[in-house]
Amino acid sequence: MASPGLSKLLRVGPGPVDLAAIDPRSTPGLPKKVGRDPKEWSRAAIAEIGVELFRQQEMLFASAKEHPEYRKRVLMVLQAMDCGGKDGTIKNVIGQLNPQGVHIVGFGKPTAEELSHPFLWRIKRALPAAGVVGVFNRSHYEDVLVVRVHELVPARTWGDRFGQINRFERQLVDEGYELVKVMLHISPDEQRKRLLERLEDPTKFWKYNPSDVDERSRWPDYQAAYADVLERCGPDHAPWYVVPADRKWYRNWAVANLLLEALGRLKLTYPPADFDSAEERRRLEGERQVNSS
Amino acid sequence: MASPGLSKLLRVGPGPVDLAAIDPRSTPGLPKKVGRDPKEWSRAAIAEIGVELFRQQEMLFASAKEHPEYRKRVLMVLQAMDCGGKDGTIKNVIGQLNPQGVHIVGFGKPTAEELSHPFLWRIKRALPAAGVVGVFNRSHYEDVLVVRVHELVPARTWGDRFGQINRFERQLVDEGYELVKVMLHISPDEQRKRLLERLEDPTKFWKYNPSDVDERSRWPDYQAAYADVLERCGPDHAPWYVVPADRKWYRNWAVANLLLEALGRLKLTYPPADFDSAEERRRLEGERQVNSS
After folding, report:
1. Which of A52, A127, A149, B253 is the most buried (most CB within 10 A)?
2. Looking at beta carbons, which residues of chain B come within 8 Å of A26?
3. Which CATH number fits domain A6-29+38-269: 3.40.50.300, 3.10.410.10, 1.10.10.410, 2.60.40.10?
4. What b/e readout covers A213-245, taking b as 16+ CB neighbours within 10 angstroms?
5. From the CA of A75, how many Å to the nearest CA of chain B?
6. B10-269 adopts what CATH topology?
7. How far apart are CA B233 and CA B144, in angstroms?
8. Which ipTM score applies to this complex?
9. Does B97 touch chain A (CB under 8 A)?
10. Per-residue pLDDT averaged across A261-277, rounded?
């Protein structure tokens, strides 16, 4: 079940944002009737939204295939604290799409080559081609988040980046991109719970990193950095959404809705035939026997 | 329900291959009990195999994340006549995996830049990184199939390519790739049926190309070219599988099995912890309050 007005409810900024006032356990826009098992409800709702996501994606793909200069594009940007659920969101929401029509890029610690270029260099190289739904797992925003919190560059350098990011995203919009910028918002308690889960399950050890615990002491610094991002980089053409993400089932449902709304704004259609279908049918039905060897 | 011996049943070559003797409607290796609705059975079986595919893929991803020099890799190569079902296979089988851990590349008509390089240039650039399941939708084999049938290069040039392909794939195996080369085998009647379906449904017009009908007159030439590929490029370390593909439900089930077998041959495991989990638990449980702001 889709909830068409969710983007209005979850939008934050531009201007002052009080992240502490957004309860990570809340469930804005949730329909009244989710029943006794919200997880099961969410799975079913996402499967239903998924059918429509798939159709929208196919129209995007088909249009770009017929017209390589096709201008409608979509790019989702996912940001979150560690354990915030970026990977789970991709698995559960983006997993509804045709894998051939998605382009997912994760941005980790920059390589030496990446560091030798301006910070947007690796981002620009990773933009999705026409017809393909792009998903960034972390993004250029790390360059005003982790970089700021750890003082990896002078304050003036990261300070200049807000403007650079805004101009870059304005360019993307000029080029036809519909941006879906999502911050998955979790609480420190939920993060601890998830870290402890990773420690209890040997199939999750690989997701655990001892430095994540050290990072927790900087929680307030990160929240302040996020608030600045939300305040300063969310114009109407490239807004930020904050999705309460302590409840994974709500998070997945909300992100699926935000993506569906974004695709809906593109007003996609299937491209018309560029051939005479009656004539083609005659050719196929009238052809001489085609032998298999 | 997985069928562990399918790779033996579907393997063809090296040496003489009589494609005409393989019935595209046959269902080798199918369990006795598929019930009255084979489509429904196949969906359920693939979902079950999908859970294990997902787990195997996660182990591959996790291992490579911990050890970037990790040598185990997997690459599926899909080839087929037009309407053979490559896209449907990717949607239904590869769609079972985590989209973040797959790298799907389609090879269309080469660009001017690609043509200015040796034919394997664009292939080498598209190889999946460690930890990621690679899928080629068409491949270097087009350079001895469509290129041969349409005489796009002199016979001597494409003739030399069999050896080049064999040496290239030997290199891939040296580098740790497990290759899963699949030809989806359909009949000309099934192709006509699928082309007619595309003409009847406006949401499928974009998949229809009038030149596909012209290509049908070359069916025997393509089959002969495929037979040569199967005969000459299928050593034990890089075998070919021919999947009868007139029945989509069988095709999907068979390809899911072949991929699962390939991942199984890699004998993947989750990487062990590189930290002291008891100590980490103590750190998390003993930390001072982390404030949300």
Report:
1. B253
2. none
3. 3.40.50.300
4. bebbeebeebbebbbbbbbbbbeeebbbbbbbb
5. 15
6. Rossmann fold (3.40.50)
7. 11
8. 0.90
9. yes
10. 95
